Amino acid sequence: MIERRQFLIGGGAAAVALGAGGLTGPARASNPDWVPGYRATVDDDGLHTQPWFHQGFLDMKEDLAEAAAGGKRLMVIWEQKGCPYCREMHKRNLALRPINDYIREHFLVVQLNMWGSRETTDFDGKAMEEKALARRWRVNFTPTVNFFPPTVAEVEGKSGLEVEVARMPGYLKPAHFLTYMEFVRDEGYKKEDFQRYLLTKFRAIHDKGGDPFRLDKLTRPQS
Questions:
Q1: How buried is residue 99: exposed, middle or buried, by Cβ count under 10 Å (0-12/13-18/19+)?
Q2: At CA 93, angle to CA 135 and CA 186, rounded to 5?
Q3: CA dist., res. 110 & res. 219, Å (int)
Q4: What 3-state DSSP class applies to 183?
Q5: Which comes out higher in pLDDT, residue 139 or 29?
Q6: Would residue 223 count as lying in a domain?
Q7: DSSP 25
Q8: Residue 222 falls within a domain, yes or no?
Q9: Which of 94, 93, 91 has its CA nearest to residue 27?
Q10: Beta strands 48-49 and 127-129: pairing type?
Q11: 170 lies in which domain range?
Q12: How far apart are CA 221 and CA 63, in angstroms?
């Protein structure tokens, strides 16, 4: 029998306020668990990034409207240069096909720099630099992932902090990371907290003879 403690310890969140230097490198797939030809890259600001991240005007309400029009949810990822847990999220979690495919199908992802100077616009129409928006949303470490309601009507005239429906506070291992995405997509937050949702899912997998921690145990192919 798998105990509740195992479920929660297996995906303990990790994050940094001031990270050390990051690395880049390839993670090529040789089996269906990994994205073929996957490579973690770093942009001009030193942030790990993905070619499929949304490239817009950083207007949160517009991004939410675009996500809704495509049948997706808005997901905002906060990162910073030199964040080792951000690097791990990109080089491991997002390299796994089940996670990569699920996010791309169900979420529109906006990446923000916790110390950035690009202009952003909050849901209530107030414009400010990324670092000011981070303070307004009380983002204190990276990675932090914010999730928002599915419709624009639910965010009118309010800040992101007021309307977020869930927040991933730090790095989660792959199995927990994917489950958090499912928790948001299924609107599990309306019925229970993440820990209960996670426990129910992992017990169901275990009871069917599966391994709820399978994604955590996979070895990433080397180039």
A1: buried
A2: 75
A3: 28
A4: helix
A5: 139
A6: no
A7: E
A8: no
A9: 91
A10: unpaired
A11: 4-215
A12: 35
